[in-house]
Amino acid sequence: MQTIKCVMVGDGEVGKTFLLVSYTTSAFKEKHLSALFDNYTGDISVDGHTVTLTLWDTAGREGYEQLRPLAYAQADVFVVCFSIGSPSSYANVRLKWKPEKHGGERRLMAVFVTNRGLK
Fold first, then answer.
1. Full set of structural domains in the chain with CATH
2. Nearest 5°: phi and psi at 18?
3. Most exposed residue of 34, 36, 51, 114, measured as fewest CB within 10 angstroms of its CB?
4. pTM for the full model?
């Protein structure tokens, strides 16, 4: 069975963990602690084929620059999240997250997600 590894990145408090918890549990939780690193795995159907989807949540806060790249190994998709209410999180898509994405050993598909953020 094919496995797709999807890594969520973005500034702290843009809603990465909220988005993943909502998707994996089909519920919207008002309060959720920020993640350092968390993984979610499940099978999904893509064009009639079962695929294992692994979702990796990473910490966007300052101080985790050395740890985040460990989650990027063998990633297939890089999901960059930013908050519509935070111009700095949008600016960091270009200034911080795009360079981090390109720092790996191979090209990754990038998906950009606008969220409302947690503030």
1. 2-115 (3.40.50.300)
2. -60, -45
3. 36
4. 0.81
